User: What shape does this take?
Amino acid sequence: MNTDVYVSITPMAEPAVGRTAELERLGDEIAELSAHLDAATARLLELIREFDARAGWNTGFRSCAEWLSWRVGLDRGAARERVRVARALGTLPRLAQALARGELSYSKVRALTRVATPDTEERLLAVGRAGTAEHVERIVRGWRRVDRLAEAQETARRHKSRALHVYQDEDGMVVFRGRLAPEVGAVLIQALTAARDALYHKAHARNVPAGTSGADVSTEPPTMPQQQADALALVAESALHYGIDPGAPGERYQVVVHVDAPVLADADAPGQSVLDDGAHVSAETSQRLACDASRVVMRHDPDGRILEVGARTRTIPPALRRALHHRDRGCRFPGCGLRFGQGHHIRHWAHGGATTLSNLALLCRRHHRAVHEEGYQVERQPDGELRFRRPDGRPLPESPTLPAVPGDPVGMLRARHEERGLDVHARTSMPGWLGERLDVGWAIDVLHPLAATRQYPS
Ligand SMILES: [Zn+2]
Ligand SMILES: [Zn+2]
Assistant: This one.
């Protein structure tokens, strides 16, 4: 036997006690630092929760996740997940504490918060403590299946229980009693509100005594239930009059603005911007709506009579819009990037701004509002790049510079955790699992409050 060969093919078998001890130390260090990072993550989530609850991100960003992605460079999905977990932990103190002590990894906590409620938190915490991250993931998936089944059954039950009973009382009045699915109820409530507005608020605005349309001759203003009854009558009359046809969604929510030309050019100019139903909108809003819209120009004589109606044209022709989408790809507001957007004229066409690619920028609905109505500014610099500014004039960079990290971030974390009396070591987050096979079905049966009743086949 050649000893040289033996040594070279099985270096692992080398009886190097010192080496094993060294690797064990390295492993311990990895485990300890991971626990420290988990504890620090708990603090980070606490800060995010507070920032989110106090709407600190509401400075031109559409959500806390979007702000987070912009400010610290997380990818969009990870940022959303952080915010979700941060919010969930607000009602799950036991899981929050386990993470803060470095006893449960962020991965486990993230999985558990997908299903945990204050009622089931304790049981799921035990799952997190006992199992590996993979066990936890599998149990959470099984748990979700039971939850979803329960949810689907609940939805089906609600749908089945929909009903509207209509009958005549002894005095001839028609009585209703019913149950509608939530989304159907929302439509009814919206229709009643619209009808009530039409009957009472408009009547009020025209100084017509409310309720004169009915047989109500009393001078007392009608009560809310009385108004609702009148509103339901109007909804029924309108449906029969115009035909029962829900229409295309686009038509249902279409908004038409009538605006005087001087107002478009100068928000301070006298003139008006009104919606079709007579409601006024601000000059800034009408400028935004006109920025990317279908346009019909009407000329009036001094008495307000229409002299001439031009053809309906798109402010931004289709070919230019395609080029704009191709160039900008999404909303250009820092940190946004939403795929769908509106063409914003950097210099408004009512001010003589050209409808050309260099004078256009794609902005999502939220950020289009930000630049027209909230004082955010955007300009194109000579080099072609866009520059955004906050309402107070401070620049809003595409991505902010990250804060400096101390030379020894690990030492800083450790010191900070020691200061808070936190005892984190290499075995802090070790699961209690001893290598047994995991039987997910059995675990769910034992743990899930609904599965225990055996209503749900696994
Ligand atoms: Zn615009
Ligand atoms: Zn946007």
Notes: Residues 288, 291, 344-345, 368, 372 surround zinc ion (ligand 1) (CB under 6 Å). The CA atoms of residues 299 and 308 lie 5 Å apart.
